[in-house]
Each structure stands twice: as structure tokens, then as C-alpha cells.
Amino acid sequence: MLKLTSEEQRMIRLFILLTISRKALETDWIQLEKASLRLQDPYLELTRATLDRISKEMSEIKQYMFRHQMKVEKQKNDGLFTEYFYHCRGYSGSMRILNTHLKNQVHDYITSCFTTISRPS
């Protein structure tokens, strides 16, 4: 059995986190565009800036994964856990992550993005 390095584990988890975060924000973006809010533009700008940040981070992670021959695929979600299958350096494995843990991590990540994004000049 292949033992992933701590850096490989970190990259896999970050890839999963960013993928879920991006999907959530893209869904919210669609809802925000449809909403009739008095101050709709700031919400859209904040969401767009966060999506741009996620895209930049995803690009770096995907480059790392390409260089290290890594792939991650979502397998199944049984309501309690989501299972991910990974390929790394010619070996394969899987990891199961508690859905509430994923949700909390996505919440914390997006919250930190919202509180650290500076207004473009």
C-alpha cells in the first residue's frame, strides 16, 4: 500500500475543498444574479473575487498534481461520507471524508476568503 506524503495528502484535501467551494459559489452566483437585492453588486463582486481566487489556487494545485502524476475523483456520497479515489505515482487509494466536516471546511474557507479580499484598485 502506498503511503502518501503529507504534502500529497494536503494537496488532495485542498483540491477537494476548492472544488466544492467553487461549485457552491457558482451556484450562489446564479441565485444572486436572479435575486432582487438593493445592494446586489457588492455581493456579486465579493463572490466573483472569491471565485477568481479559487481559480488561481486551483491552477497551482492542478500544476502540482500534474507534476506528481496525481488524479482525484469523487466516487460516492452515502449521505454521511463522501468517498474520493486518488491515483498518485502509479498507485491508487481512496479516502472517505465526513460530509459535515467537508461542509465546515468549505464554510471556514469561504468565510476567510470573504474577510481577506481587498477591493480592486
From TrEMBL:
InterPro entries: YhjD-like
Protein name, UniProt field: Uncharacterized protein
Organism: Halalkalibacter suaedae
